[in-house]
């Protein structure tokens, strides 16, 4: 029996490793020449975009443990997230965990009793409305912390983002250690993708790059052949398939399946400028830049829900982003040289970074649409926004489905 896992993003890597370690023969088919999908290293080693994990992301951390890369993910800001407000020049640290807000110095500005009650209501998930509307009476809290958290976690503008989806996030980060923010120390290549491929090889899985699944032949509620590139692969009686693909590819392969069809872009600007001697992660309020990752090898800026920015030329965005980076670096006295002229900048625009997480119930993906077919992928996990954690959980679940079948 062979399990064919299609798509070597996080969901496919997790599913393939779980099955190979359980003793199954696994072939992982990936359309491109690299693994990682939307969480990958570009050919020059740059991350496609900054990826952060939280302590609550247990499935993602389990996977890092399984591939021996857990200690490559570091917590850059254990004292709370440094946030710089361009409007008034204020610089403060805010704890990501609501539990830590008992300490007034770690509270987001604008947090009042009324604001706490509103957050508890959002966390309960009993209503669903745009986050901007849900927090309309608490503009300072929205601006100082909940807004940036929402845009980062849901990759959706505040006027559209679902308060119920934000509630899922708030519930998950309330526990001790759950809101610890982790980033790859050196990059997604060395800290995620390369160790995952090594672990897969060690577990005996076969990986085929340049193998795009063009179509599937299906009969009597089973997949009977995979059409991969120029090849047709007949499926044995006991063979199984896991599609670990983005929604638009899954919908192309399974006609009639309802999938999320609206996506939001994420823009990353990577500046070739050596950063501080240790990894830092800082937030910026009121500008173009939302988050700045400072690594010794370079400085990266994230702009989520970047509907407008994704259409702007990088040359036009880089000078503004650099001015905001310098102001933030100075406000937090980051060591190093911060020249006024922007260093060389590379922009990466991921136009379909994640589905948009608007108000309403998203299409629910069937876990096992056919007897020998299981689905995985960040968009298939209903309890979370489309993230590494959702992808990892879906990969674990799909592997479990195949093992039980
Ligand atoms: C810039 C950016 C920043 C992000 N930041 C964060 C973050 O900070 N934290 C977080 O948790 N999440 C973040 N995310 C989201 C996270 O990257 C995704 O949720 C996750 O990587 C999705 O994994 P996946 O395996 O479900 O899908 P994908 O990564 O899309 O993997 C699917 C794979 O299938 C391959 N494929 C597609 N079609 C075919 C086919 N027909 N045949 C064979 N192979 C095919 C693709 O090439 C790809 O390798 C970010 C995403 C982006 C783009």
Automatic annotation (TrEMBL):
Record's Pfam families?
Amino_oxidase
Spell out the InterPro entries in the cross-references: Amino_oxidase, FAD/NAD-bd_sf, Zeta_carotene_desat/Oxidored
Task: Tell me where the transmembrane regions lie.
Answer: none
List each copy of the Amine oxidase domain by range: 10-272
Would you say which domain of life the source belongs to? Bacteria
This protein is called NAD(P)-binding protein
According to its UniProt entry, this protein's organism is Neoroseomonas terrae
